[in-house]
């Protein structure tokens, strides 16, 4: 699903995406603003402040509060991101821009639904740690997806947990980047909260202005 993935509480009480089987969270970044176009809201777009999570299979933006439509979080599957670009303006904050196909029925590169334009602003601090990890994982995910040529693959095949653990252990840590980095053995949520299966499509996505609940689990 792209809109409103299942959310759980971290050990610190923060909202976090419920992990898929074999999903490993790499980092959390607060002080983020997300602009997303083409989503089903009253104004056909979404702008919100919140936190960004990076895992071995996706980026997930979780807003500090829900939109009036009910939209509170959005998945960016790494293999579905295209034309992504790091922007570092002289005046203004670092940001990532690009497009992402919705991970719903009829979405994806071979589907009939158009991709969403997005821009993610990092309002607090640098992105040296985040961008290196994001770039490495995304490139591998895209290459694996293209090599698959339509064959079914596990979403975590490009970036398996053992590879991610080694990548994080050797990652450059930018002292100006306030991201919270997670080691593979120190994930942000209890293992019992892990989902039993991969992502499921949201039946009402693109059909009405009220999103399915995030399915917040205790």
Automatic annotation (TrEMBL):
Cellular component GO terms, alphabetical: nucleus
Q: Which domain of life is it from?
A: Eukaryota
Annotated GO MF terms: chromatin DNA binding; transcription coactivator activity
Name the species this protein comes from. Volvox carteri f. nagariensis
| Region feature (Disordered) | 193-218
What is the name attached to this protein's record?
Answer: Uncharacterized protein
């Amino acid at each position: 699903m792209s809109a409103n993935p299942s959310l759980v509480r971290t050990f610190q009480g923060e909202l976090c995406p419920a992990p898929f089987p074999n999903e490993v969270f790499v980092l959390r970044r607060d002080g983020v603003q997300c602009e997303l176009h083409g989503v089903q809201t009253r104004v056909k777009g979404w702008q919100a402040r919140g936190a960004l999570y990076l895992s071995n299979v996706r980026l997930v933006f979780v807003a500090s509060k829900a939109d009036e439509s009910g939209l509170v979080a959005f998945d960016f599957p790494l293999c579905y991101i295209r034309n992504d670009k790091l922007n570092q303006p002289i005046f203004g904050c670092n940001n990532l821009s690009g497009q992402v196909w919705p991970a719903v029925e009829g979405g994806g590169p071979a589907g009939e639904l158009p991709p969403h334009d997005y821009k993610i602003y990092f309002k607090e601090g640098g992105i040296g740690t985040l961008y290196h990890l994001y770039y490495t994982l995304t490139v591998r995910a895209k290459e694996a997806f293209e090599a698959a040529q339509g064959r079914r693959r596990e979403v975590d095949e490009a970036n398996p947990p053992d590879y991610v653990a080694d990548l994080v252990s050797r990652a450059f840590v930018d002292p100006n980047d306030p991201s919270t980095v997670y080691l593979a053995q120190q994930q942000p949520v209890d293992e019992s909260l892990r989902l039993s299966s991969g992502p499921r499509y949201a039946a009402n996505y693109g059909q009405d202005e009220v999103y399915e609940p995030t399915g917040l689990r205790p």
